[in-house]
Amino acid sequence: MEDAHRVLKNIWGFPSFRLSQAEVIKRLIVDNENALVLYPTGGGKSLTYQVPALCLPGLTLVISPLIALMKDQVDALVDRGVKAANLDSTLDAERSAWVKEEVISGRLKLLYVAPERLNNEGFVTMMSHVKISLLAIDESHCISQWGASFRPEYLKIARFAEEMDVERVLCLTATATPNVAKDICKSFYIDAQKGVFRTAVYRPNLALQVRVANTLDQKLDILIPFLKSRIGPAIVYVTLQRHAQEVADHLRPHGMEPMVYHAGLGGDERARVQQQFMESEKGIVCATIAFGMGIDKANIRQVVHLFMPKTLENYSQEVGRAGRDGLPSTCLMFLSAPDIPILEGFCRGDTCNKRSIHLWLQEVVLKTPDKDGTLSFNHYQQSREYDIRANVLGLCYAQLELDHNYIRAVTPFYSQYDMSSRTADGWQKVLGDETEAAKTIKMYWAPRGSTFQIDVVTAAQQSGQDRGDLAKKISDWELSGYVNVKASQVRARYKIVNPLPKELEEIVNITDMMYKRMLDREEEAIVKLRQVIDFATDDACLAQSLASHFGDDGAIPTGLCGSCSFCQTGEGIPFESGAVAQPDPIKIKAILQACPERDDPHLLARMAFGVTSPRLTAGKWSTSHPLFGSMVEVDFNALVEAFDKECARAGYAKADIQPSAAASKKRLMSQSASSSGRGGTSKRARRGW
Ligand code: ADP
Ligand code: MG
Fold first, then answer.
1. I want to staple 494 with a disulfide (CB 3.0 to 4.6 A). Which of 181, 349, 407, 429 is the partner?
2. Which atom of ligand 1 is nearest to the CA of 40?
3. Which ligand is nearest to the CA of 46?
4. CB of 42 closer than 6 A to ligand 1?
5. Is the CB of 47 under 6 A from ligand 1?
6. Rounded to the nearest 5°, which phi and psi values hold at 60?
7. Fold for domain 2-198?
8. How many angstroms separate the CA atoms of 441 and 473, rounded?
9. pTM (2 decimals)?
10. How far is the CA of 77 from the centre of ligand 2 (A)?
11. Ligand index nearest the alpha carbon of residue 298
12. Is the CB of 323 under 6 A from ligand 1?
């Protein structure tokens, strides 16, 4: 531990550890045990692996989901003279070769990668030759399938940790309920008592307030005087990007100069706004929840949720940004019945049609392997074709890999290359290249403006040449400086580890399992949304309820914080969500006329309710269509039921029917018909929020 204190002083110049940082580090480097750290954003999680990284002999591998954040961290470390680097797809060949050399030679102390990197065989092989002293997993709540921020690739980290025999694991997150924490502990063999380090959820200096307002005007009537009374910086959170600008525009006539921040802005603009806010004394920022990761400002006095948050985990993390200096701060959340369908749409958006899963699975199992025995798929294309969101499709593949053990992801590749000449001389060399691969490339490439484009998968199939050889030739030309190359259309590649199921019955079974998992996830998301409403409206102290949600029932001995809206008024907020149970037949008919598809009641229900999906977008029935979201006030399950009747009547016909699907269709249809009315009445009854 002396080592650790010395590193803290010499490298970071900090006199002492914060919170339980010292205990975490001791657990890792003295006890040699795994740990889970649950500190809020800005709590100082990074040091709990960065300091050990410099005390341990081998490499510390950090897995982090965001390339941009990764880069900032690495730059900061390098500035302090620490040997750190990141390895990601944005690096050029020279830089990544350098990083690999530093890793192999053992000079590098910290390596940051995104979880997708674990699919890369070259990376895995390299790691198997390196001693990993510590595996640090940032945002580790992403491994839990029950979280909204679940990332399929995170599921594979535990297997990687075992296969690589990493010496110790540290998981980090700012947001974990007892269930998510349990999931993490189980996956990484972390002792739930001794290995978990958290800060108190209850923050006595935060006054949690809830107000009901049914229109934006009503909200502004409360918000404007609230912001005017501020004595320090304020964050106003909104749900949709466009709201950020809209709300800011409403505040300007009242003598306020709010900043605007959301993920749709350019990187430079985002950095500028963040900087301006950090330096401001009483600045206001109107932002989506993209704002705040890595915001380390101690004196934020107000955090507003102009729209209700999706989950209590989000809420806790966002209000947690207020009053880090311990001084009184106010967090104001608005409850509004018309806002709920948008959030419900987010919850329901991931569930696809069961038939889509079946068709997708059929393609996967029937696909002819490439020459090297692997299967390759363009996820982006499949996502559109089967109307399954990219992240969900990723989960389906991960399930085939981890739950069913049929396939295993290996290094992905690009299928499309655009080549342009770098020098006239170089181009002559390309034209003069007489190797087999070169001749094939030149036979199959086609001019596109100033470049030549080739799809190496198609070219390989048609010429009988190996795809890898073609890709290697192009890369050789690039490395020799003959051409500039832009690769696109990434294809995920899978090794077949066990014979794939070919019987219809097996395929149907797997489809059922995957579909059930999707419905469970959707239901869970709806439950989480309801928790927020219950939290805001129950007859209970808000601060204690929030602490209880995170497992701390005794946070406030009296059970009353004295400063939340419940403690001040003595009662929960009265609130009606006002969902309509029966859809209007005229509106149903309008949707049916606009969208000719009858194979998927969910598709029609989504259009009516206003939930986008790849297929709705492709058919132009999404946000640009005037009827999109035209029945947002209706209970979603009632919509599915109503459209299911119409689809049944039309024999579940698809406008452009695919012959390959016809064989299995009949059977599937009877299933999806019975499942689409799922829990109809019980759920409708419950939507009396
Ligand atoms: P998190 O990852 O938990 O959001 P960070 O690791 O980014 O938080 O740390 C937030 C800030 O706190 C950083 O600026 C960091 O330098 C600072 N910090 C962390 N630990 C200490 C410490 N022991 N003493 C002083 N500052 C610290
Ligand atoms: Mg962090």
1. 407
2. 3
3. 1
4. yes
5. yes
6. -105, 120
7. Rossmann fold (3.40.50)
8. 9
9. 0.79
10. 13
11. 1
12. no
Whose tokens are 């947001």? That residue is: 175
**Average pLDDT, stretch 62-82?**
90
Q: Does residue 666 have a pLDDT over 60? A: no
Using one digit for the tens of pLDDT, what is the confidence trace for 217-262? 999 999 999 999 999 999 999 998 999 999 999 999 999 999 999 9
Query: Looking at the DSSP assignment, which residues form a beta bridge with residue 376?
Result: 493
In a mutational test of the pocket of ligand 1, which residue from 75, 296, 325 has the highest number of ligand atoms less than 8 Å from its CB? Answer: 296
Residues 6+ apart with CB under 8 A from 45: 37, 39, 138, 172, 174
- Segment 87-95 mean pLDDT: 83
Residue 294's pLDDT is 63
Looking at the chain, the whole-number percentage of residues with pLDDT higher than 90 is 64
Tell me, using a 6 A CB cutoff, whether residue 296 lines ligand 1.
Answer: yes
pLDDT (tens digit, 9 = 90+) per residue, 251-298? Answer: 999 999 999 999 899 889 998 999 999 999 999 999 998 887 667 788
> 206-336+556-569, superfamily in CATH?
P-loop containing nucleotide triphosphate hydrolases (3.40.50.300)
pLDDT band at 680; cut points 50, 70, 90: very low
Q: Where are the domains of the chain?
A: 2-198, 206-336+556-569, 579-675
Q: Are 36 and 140 in contact (CB under 8 A)?
A: yes
User: How many angstroms separate the alpha carbon of residue 18 from the centre of ligand 1?
Assistant: 8
Give me ligand 2 centre to Cα 364, in Å: 38
- Same-fold call for 2-198 versus 206-336+556-569: yes
Candidate from 14, 62, 295 with most ligand 1 atoms within 8 A of CB, to mutate: 14
What pLDDT does 687 receive?
33
Question: Which residues neighbour ligand 2 (ion) by CB within 5 Å?
Answer: 45
Query: Poorest-confidence range of 169-178, 236-245, 552-561?
Result: 169-178
- Please compute the mean of the pLDDT values over residues 69-92 and round it to a whole number: 90
Q: Which of 676, 672, 606, 680 is nearest to 357 (CA)?
A: 672
Q: 210: number of CA atoms within 13 Å, CB side?
A: 29
Q: From residue 230, give the alpha-carbon distance in Å to each of 227, 246, 284, 329.
A: 5, 21, 10, 10
